From TrEMBL:
Gene3D superfamilies: 3.40.630.30. Keywords: Transferase. Residues 1-165 form the N-acetyltransferase domain. This is N-acetyltransferase. The keyword Translocase does not apply. The lineage of its organism: Bacteria, Bacillati, Chloroflexota, Ktedonobacteria, Ktedonobacterales. The keyword Transferase applies. InterPro entries: Acyl_CoA_acyltransferase (IPR016181), GNAT_dom (IPR000182). It comes from Ktedonosporobacter rubrisoli. Transmembrane segments: none annotated. GO terms for molecular function: acyltransferase activity, transferring groups other than amino-acyl groups.
Length: 165
């Protein structure tokens, strides 16, 4: 198990990872086939992330293959520069093996080094595995976003969760 910062050379594999996550789970934001990011666009996005300093993507790698990621995006304004919004995705075949926990450990170290005080995310209320992981990593439910998403023609509520460092 290797957790590391994303690199420019990861663009193709990272795009494939995200497309596979879109296909195999309804817990990610995009529907299957909805992601329109091209490989050149993915390369540019990674280049921008690596130069900004207030944003990072950590990738989980197993046997040379990207199997998960955690993206942290810091606030851009004086009043929210202490916050980072989190998105995480791990391929189904690799869930429950500690990759999520390790990604959050690396995130915490990076967040402290970059003076973040608040980490926040949203999660569908019925995503029990993710809720268990987030609570284990110190996140608390702060509220509910009613009918936040529409998945398979049904409205889905989301929890708004955060962790203070």
């Amino acid at each position: 198990m290797l957790i590391r910062n994303i690199q420019q050379e990861d663009a193709e594999q990272f795009l494939q990872l995200r497309q596979q996550l879109d296909q195999e789970t309804t817990y990610m934001l995009l529907e299957p086939g909805e992601r329109e990011t091209t490989l050149p666009q993915q390369r540019e996005q990674i280049a921008q992330i690596l130069t900004r300093g207030r944003q990072m993507i950590f990738v989980a790698e197993e046997a040379g293959k990207l199997i998960g990621y955690l993206e942290a995006s810091g606030g851009n304004f004086k009043r929210n520069t202490h916050t980072a919004y989190i998105v995480i995705g791990i391929l189904q075949a690799y869930t429950g093996q500690g990759f999520g926990t390790r990604l959050f450990e690396v995130l915490e170290s990076w967040s402290r080094l970059n003076n973040f005080h608040r980490l926040e995310l949203t999660v569908m209320v019925h995503n029990q595995a993710a809720l268990t992981l987030y609570k284990k990593c110190g996140f608390e439910i702060e509220g509910i976003r009613k009918h936040a998403l529409r998945v398979k023609n049904a409205y889905v509520d989301e929890y708004y969760m955060a962790r203070l460092l």
